Amino acid sequence: MEELILILEDFYASACKDMIEAQLKPRGIKDVRVLEAILGVPRHLFVSKDNLARAYSDMALDIGMGQTISQPYMVAVMTELLEIGETSRVLEIGTGSGYQTAILAELAMEVYSIERIDYHSETAAKRLKELGYENVSIKTGDGTLGWPEKAPFDRILITAAAPDVPVPLMEQLADDGILVSPVGERHTQQLWKVVKSGGKVLKEFLFPCVFVPLIGQHGWAR
Ligand code: SAH
């Protein structure tokens, strides 16, 4: 049995390496800290049994309750855009499976993550605790309101599609902070990188993407 577990662990570790070599590096992901963080997180532990064979495939996967774990490349690109340092305090909206949360936790000092669906926030919190992440706090709620008690945040990542960047999140972003979010219509969006600097806000529109909707007071109504 133990031998079988070791063989399986080897199998998944090499699938993760292959994913990095085939899907991430050729598309331009080059930040060594980001690549190492991705290598350090066993993606197969964040997907359902039905999706185990596809855990390291080039696609988003269903995680239940109509939600998805993002495609590995999308996770990598958003993480790289955030330029997370060892002392960064990061807020994530849309915990989902907790996979992206784990990658943020590998890079940052503290990660706060908000998820509106109980089932996902509870499952992700349990999973991340079992994996030994001690710098992560997860709560259930409407992430479009942010987490005012813990603000300001150096980095904010929204992993669901917003009609516009929620005002409370812009307010809770520290000066010199970076926010990354898909913004746009219900079924297709652009990935935005927003930088706050000296009271000014700079927006960069990167490329088209498709995310599940951000539902809340400063998002979609349902
Ligand atoms: N980062 C996740 C992807 C989750 S998909 C992962 O790696 O698995 C986006 C998630 O955002 C869904 O779980 C959805 O329930 C959640 N979500 C949508 N609107 C939200 C809101 N207002 N506040 C918090 N979470 C929200």
Describe the structure.
With 222 residues, the protein is α/β, with parallel strands linked by helices. The chain has a single domain (2-209), classed as Vaccinia Virus protein VP39 (Rossmann fold, 3-Layer(aba) Sandwich), CATH 3.40.50. It is 31% helix and 27% strand. It has helices spanning 2-24, 32-39, 72-82, 99-107, 118-130, 167-171; strands at 61-64, 67-69, 89-93, 110-115, 136-140, 153-158, 173-184, 189-197, 200-209. Strands 5-4-3-6-7-8-9 form a 7-stranded mixed beta sheet. It has a two-stranded antiparallel ribbon with strand order 1-2. A hairpin with a 2-residue loop joins strand 8 and strand 9. Helix 2 (32-39) packs across helix 4 (99-107). The protein is globular. The mean pLDDT is 97. The structure holds S-adenosyl-L-homocysteine (SAH). The site of S-adenosyl-L-homocysteine (SAH) has 26 residues, from strand 2, helix 4 and strand 4.
- Treating each run of at least 4 consecutive H or I residues as one helix, how many helices? 6
Biggest sheet strand order reads 5-4-3-6-7-8-9
Point out poorly predicted stretches.
Answer: none
> The CATH topology, please?
Rossmann fold
- Radius of gyration, in Å, reads 17 Å
CATH superfamily label: Vaccinia Virus protein VP39
Content of β-strand? 25-35%
Q: Gap between N and C termini, in Å?
A: 47 Å
**Which cofactors or ions or other ligands sit in this model?**
S-adenosyl-L-homocysteine
Backbone shape: globular
Task: Please tell me the CATH architecture by its name.
Answer: 3-Layer(aba) Sandwich
Sketch the topology as an H/E string, one letter per element. Answer: HHEEHEHEHEEHEEE
Return the CATH class.
Answer: Alpha Beta
Structural class, from helix and strand content? alpha/beta
